Amino acid sequence: MAQPIRHFLQFADLSTDELQHVFARASLIKERFKRYEFYQPLRDRTLAMVFEKASTRTRVSFEAGMYQLGGSVIHLTTGDSQLGRAEPIEDTARVISRMVDLVMIRTYEQAKIQRFAKSSRVPVINGLTNEYHPCQILADVFTFIEHRGSIAGRTVAWIGDANNMAYTWIQAARLLGFTLHVSTPPSYPLDARLSVTGPHLKVFDLPLEAARGADLVTTDVWTSMGFESENEVRRKAFTDWCVDSEIMAAASPQALFMHCLPAHRGEEVTEEVLEGPQSVVWDEAENRLHVQKALMEYLLLGHEVT
Prior knowledge:
- With about 300 residues, the chain is α/β, with parallel strands linked by helices.
- The chain has helices at about 15-35, 55-70, 80, 90-95, 110-120, 135-150, 165-175, 205-210, 230-235, 245-250, 270-275, 280-300, and strands at about 45-50, 70-75, 100-105, 125-130, 155-160, 180-185, 200-205, 215-220, 255-260.
- It contains 12 helices and 9 strands.
- The strands form 2 sheets. Strands 7-6-5-8-9 form a 5-stranded parallel sheet. It has a 4-stranded parallel sheet with strand order 2-1-3-4, with helices on both faces.
- Strand 5 (about 155-160), helix 7 and strand 6 (about 180-185) form a beta-alpha-beta unit.
- It is globular, with a radius of gyration of 19 Å.
């Protein structure tokens, strides 16, 4: 009997056990990569990448990763694909998924990628939407595990915008057993529709309080792609939500700092913190490559790997 198609449209699409499998595979795949060891389980497989939102890290990590696993890549931009414009999204999905083995989409509304996946005959991966950024949080959690061991029972502080990263961290906290502290400006609170409440989530008015005792402090730009018209208003509202040395001093002495990049030095994070000894942003960026290779391997091959 054919196995059901697995998609990765949000972090919660994988179970705790499946996530742990992906992290374990990412570690092994990274070790092989560092040893220049030949490993190509996805030979003759093709990944289609659809970009309605541009990205450096997402394109390079997925494209390089698929080639390293032995597969090939088709890169489609907004002009090439026009999801939902030239034809219904469902029709596009039916056609593309008959020609490739895997699809990664980076777009705006989560509803678009959900509609595509519903009509797709192959796994679909969320490369980023307005609501979620699951591949980035895979990399972030994996990076924490590399540096500090299991994230279960730890505390992560999210300081800044209530954006797709924050909502994905909320899902990760529930699934992986850690506590997420969130602090956003009062006029930019978490959206209750995307926030799974429970003991894994604590909201703080002040960023310093959110960071207190945290094992990881993380943030993102104040203005996400698509909201550029709000730049000036947000700069004023978010002034006190800059991760600086004072905020890092409130965290655990062994706390790490992460940022999904690109970073605006002097806005959401100071140069001192971004380039400081607690920062692991470059490891975090590299690990997009390794966790996404493990994810693609799992979605296409399941546990049947060595």
